[in-house]
Design goal:
Shape of chain C: globular
Oligomer: heterotrimer
Chains: A alpha+beta (484), B alpha+beta (522), C alpha/beta (426)
Helix content of chain A: 25-40%
Number of helices of chain C: 18
Radius of gyration of chain C: 21 Å
Helix content of chain C: 40-55%
CATH topology of one domain in chain C: Glutathione S-transferase Yfyf (Class Pi), Chain A, domain 2
Distance between the termini of chain A: 32 Å
CATH class of the largest domain in chain A: Alpha Beta
Order of helices and strands of chain C: HHHHHHHEEHHEHHEHEHEEEHEHHEHEH
Largest sheet of chain A: 6 strands, antiparallel
Structural class of chain C: alpha/beta
Distance between the termini of chain C: 48 Å
Number of strands of chain C: 11
Number of helices of chain A: 16
Structural class of chain A: alpha+beta
Shape of chain A: globular
Strand order of the largest sheet of chain A: 12-14-13-16-17-15
CATH architecture of one domain in chain C: Up-down Bundle
CATH architecture of the largest domain in chain A: 2-Layer Sandwich
Number of strands of chain A: 17
Amino acid sequence: MPIKEELEKLIMDEDHLVEDHEILAGITQNFGFIKGGMPECVVRAKDTDEVQKLIKWSNKSKIPITPISSGAPHLRGGATPLFGGVAMDLSLMDKLINVDRRYRVAMVEPGVTFYQLKAELKKAGMRIPAPLSPRKNKSVVGSVLEREPITIPKYHIDMSAPLLCAEVVFGTGDLFRTGEASGPGTLEEQAVAKRKQVWDSGPGQISFARLLQAAQGSLGVVTWCTLRCEVLPTIRDFLFISADNVSQLVDFVYRMLRLKLGDECFILNGQNSALLMDANLSTNSLRQGLPNWILVLGISGYDYFPEERVSYQRRNLISIARQFGLVPKQVIPGGKTGAFLKNLENPTEPYWKLGLKGGCSEIFFLTTLDKVSGFVNLMYEVCRKYQYDVNDLGVYIQPTQQGRNCHCEFNLYYDPKDPKEEEKVRRLFSVASDAIMKKGGFFSRPYGDWAQMAYNRDAVSRQAVRELKGIFDPNNIMNPGKLC
Amino acid sequence: MSIAKDAYKMLESVVGPENISQDPTMLDVYSYHFLAELQRKGTGTKFVPHKPGAVVLPGSVEQVQGIISVCNRFGLKSKAHSTSFGSWNAHSWEDVVIIDLRRMDKILEIDEKNMYAVVEPYVTWAQLQAEAMKLGMTPSLAGVGCQTSPLANVTCGLGMGPFNISMGFNERHALGVEWALPNGEILRMGSLGSRAGWFCGDGPGPSLRGILRGEYGNLGGLGVVTKCAIKLFDWPGPSEIPIEGMFPKLRLSEDISDRLKYFLITFSDRERRNEATRLIGEAEIAYQMYAWGHGFLLAAVPELSHLIPRNPEDKKPPKDPVLAMSLASNSPDELLYQEKVLMKILDKTGGKLSDYMNILGVACTIFRYLTRPDYLFSGLARFASGWWITLFDFVGTPDSITEVQKSAIGTLEKWEGKNILLGCADSYCQPMYEGAHVGYLDHSGGYYDVCDTESRQSYTDMIMEINRPLVEKNIIHPTIASNKANQRAGMLMSNFHEWQKKIKAAFDPRSVSDGGYYIEVD
Amino acid sequence: MALENVEKNALRCLRCSNCKWVPGAHVKSWRFAQICPSIFKYNFHAYSGGGRVITAASIISGRTELTDEVAEIIYKCQLCGGCDIACRPSMGGFVEPLDVIRELRIKAVGEGFLVPEHMMAIESLKNEDNMVQKPKAERGDWAEGLDIKNITQEKAEVVFHAGCKASFDRDLWGQIRGAVLLLKEAGVDFGIMGKDEVCCGGRAYSIGYMGEFTKYAEHNIETWKNAGVKKVVTACADGFGALRNLYPKVIEEMDIEVIHISQYLDEFIKEGKIKFSKEVPMKVTYHDPCNLGRLGEAYAKWDGVEKKLPGPIVEFDPPKPERYGVNGVYEPPRNILKSIPGIELVEMERIREHSWCCGAGGGAIDAYPDFALSTAKERIEEAKSTGAEAMATACPWCIRNFRDAVEKYGYNFPVYDVIDLALKAM
């Protein structure tokens, strides 16, 4: 029986089965140079029951499934199927199941975007620690499952943050709930006991939620998760520090993170700063007027004496910055501060990483702040070798785990419609990734070729991940070929 | 003591003759564990029923790997421990090879900038904190005692303590980890495996910290962790613990109130106290915190223990729930701000600064328990020689903690005088985690005389009586972290035990790690 | 007491490992955090204070029995009392590891598990009234030329007890000769027993020979009382501990005050009877001998019972004496050093109640010299880490063991008695 017929029996609404070529191509397309196999169709699952049915079907039919929660375009190719099969689109599962101010938790389905969630949380007096200006159709669940870094390091208490509990259908078709959500009792029964699925450990002596993260959907499909939210500030303020070299900022950042001062803390180079001011950036004039590097610091006041909090934090940050020879300012020199701040909170149109040339290949990895400067210089070197204009290169440094490591990201902007340019960037991407790994960059989220590179370097981890795959997806039907 | 001679010889060649023993008394000493006297099918003493086959003292991960290799070859089980405080360190079968990690006791590195220290299993919290304090830092100590192992606590144990309010639950504090797996491989987790350093324990891909531990660690049931990078945090206090004198007359030796302020606060009821923790957590001002039942305060602080009635006709002690906490900063205006906020919250919730802090020695004891917990728990033994927590494995929101406390108090009060001190039914220790998003309820007020069978039996009866209704009402989950308990609990909790068994089977195919406090496949 | 009398103690060990470590609040570094020399060297848990308590539990309950191997575990311990001090804040009077270990030794001797080197020391005690295997006749040679009253011939209210170690070790004569000179200088009317002095018996007790100990205790007290002695002063911390702490266990009414020479000297300095006129420019650290410090507290007899109260609470009736070591002799030797012009006193990390043992006690120096010396080495390392040029202490056993370790391990690090430095300043 053709796949379409089999699937139509499983799902209630035939409109939820899509074979439109453009949509299928959009799923395959990515800027991570991952060559995928176009799926035969897209199934838009609307609830956990359908997800489970589909996965069970996939086990029986041996036709692979690739779950997708965010809308196109997909930058890294994590959701690009390598071997065709069926793409499971979770965007219809877009319920904000619960937002609870008292327990600072939100329960969301995979189709909920940051745009949606932020708006609802704001009404409830909360915020979600989020990545840097995600695109409008970026799934929150997708983002936390990818272990995307967040812009407020003090809330990044763990690499898993802000993920708490999750409901997941494993690749076996089994339904499971992680952490406190696992039981005893149903969610309704737990609610009577004022339990709100806020504790992510376990159940038992396994942290199941951790296994799902950075798995690129290859172990199971999360059908909802709870997220740790924080109090919405009543007052917000920002400081900006410019520098010619990123190394000038590092020691100060270390100090303020150690003292847990400030909220947002990240570094952008001029290019990325410009793009966040004006996603439609078509000339170099804005970028040229900006400093080489900008450190962005957020300060917040909460419910109690917010002005005083902002005041002493500002004072302390300025004082400490001066000890390091740095001068914080309230505006970005030469830049459109208002637009920048607006775009930090709201998705840009077009997505700021794609506005310049239409394409963006990202190289990101983890390192420590004191090594960032070395990686930046390395990247410049490789760019020059491959005649990529370093002025076009975007750089984003995000301290993570409260300053114990940092996400270092290079954005290679290019025109995907220009095959020569694309090929140049593809080779640059490959060479730079290899050089970064050899220099000690840690590709903790190994998309595409990084997976082979990372696991070749760490064979024991590779074997361990394969064991996990064998447990949670023994028939290898969940996004096969990803990871190892 | 019947492991094969060849196996013994091989083990001896791995660790050296001075680091292995099969002496019966030596092995019996390794069969004695805290709380084993409460086991239903135990000996009635702290000696567990099973005799080990040998004890070995490895000095390196290679030697640990060698031991595991011998166990795989000869079908032997092994159980590793470091300081070994608790029955979960015990072996659960006959002829288990005990791996005592005492020789692996170094602090290998302290990276001040990136705020972590790399430690071996037998480093203690006190040692690690002492070295970190010299650099103005501290780890997040476990309340169980500063003589225990950070590596064991963070990777294989539980991990709650007074710093969790600002630093997070200790399970989050592992970065890179070196782990001798029971299948014979050495797994270097995270960035360590990619030869990038110790700074991250997650990846590449799915985080293998997920199989290292969950709510509890694997308690020796899945290989041996031999090194771990543990997070350090800023410590604004002096470079040494400012204590002088000797127990029981320890005193603070300097005024640290310009950087660290300690508070003991009472409330009229637990709802208000728990609400205060929630608000303090949201305000992000607390550095260290324990919420205590009044009974726990009186029991734990020797300077106050005279207030506990010795006879039913004695004056009953107060029952006000308390909060012990600190504010900390190197910045005077930050400290001022924090205190202002705290006072506002106390005003809102009716919290009052306790007069107990004016009693000589109390302030020092509170400081010690929040900063370097020494006799916070082990000191409870001085009442009857035996004690343990009565409700455990409960982590929840401040409100759900209140629910548990309300649900349990009636039963607890019935046991006053029998296995709970008079007037001290509300005797729990409740660290709050991570901005008080959640807290841990550890009812530490159950006592028994180790040498009295009836006392021990009634204690276990009390645990059942208190726990069962709470589990039935879905207020707490059943006991976990043992083979049998997991099999029972799993049926109420997404059948986690089945997945845990699969993980055990995959990573320990010959079952060489003693799964008594983890899980066994069959 | 028989071992069975400490059965409850043995079964109540918490297995918390506090006995291996300096009490937590006092730990200042990774390096100097441990308090038990035995497990520091031998690593197996049985070698800790708690481990020996569990050993006792195992033997008492018949699970295992005394063997030569077990005897070795029992005897590879200096009885320094570090485990005891570290245990008490948790367990109060429930465990008392030191008493349990002592009972184990008494049982071992009683059942014939004898350490050959200890047997030789006891033979020497029986034959020569000393445990250092020297001829009795030479005992009084150290006092030649000093013109001191002999209480076997004349009465005196104060007797200076020189002790076995210093009496027979020329290298240590300076300490006891210096002590009596200081007593003379201060105008104390005292005497010695010269060649008629006998061992205090403390070491016999520590290695399990209760009978010998009791014999010597009774002999000494009777002799001193007959001589009209009201106060015994010694320069040996070991002797001080035996006289103050162990004798009252077997002697109903001692009626003799026991003091250490450092306490006397401290008084003399305060009263102006001893004055220092010379500079002794030296950076020095002070080692607290176990038997002067934590084990130097006066003995307090306890004949009470356990009583159960609701809770349950198990209390001792009357309450057991609180023995946290705080009433040992800590300040007098330090006061002396601080009074000497030019001396800069720097402290080690493990001091006072949680001092690290010198290694000489408990029979270790006789039977396990490597163990004794490696223990001393650890202490010397700690002393050197302070930046001190030398170490001072107040016990000839400590000095002997430290000096032997200095020689064996090639340190350039003098070890003095407090008295040596005091004399330098006079």
